[in-house]
Amino acid sequence: MGAVTQRKPFDEIKSHLKKTDRIGIISCNTCVRFCGTGGLERMEELASRLRKEGYTVEEELLVTAACIRDYIERARLSKGLTKVIALTCDAGWTSIKQALPDVEVIKANETLGIMIVSPGNGVLKLMKTYKKYKNRAGDEFGLLTGEPKKEKVLDLEVPK
Known about the structure:
Rossmann fold, 5 helices
């Protein structure tokens, strides 16, 4: 079980940044990687896009799970970062904010709810949602891509 996330638009993330910011990116390598919204590849992709547009990305940190606060507290981040972009779920974002109280932490993902992952079927299923996304319970997404599945793969009862 883990969190289902969807990427926020690049322009929305950029709207929180200034060209003078010293930016760090922290990404989980578990749930958000399964959702295609984090992990090493997405972190490097975001850093590259920002650099191409003239932003200063000084730090890229991949952690197993940002919701495990010890991983964030033990990280040796560059001094003087002004913004950190969190490629995490809401729990990871909160953990980063608490561990780095003097840095603005920007949410790059929207958390929909919790999931079941089925690597053998290449799918993850949204099982329990935040109220805002209650109509999406039972939705399925491609593993590592986050692409919505047109046809259901997992025949699982979704709790109400």
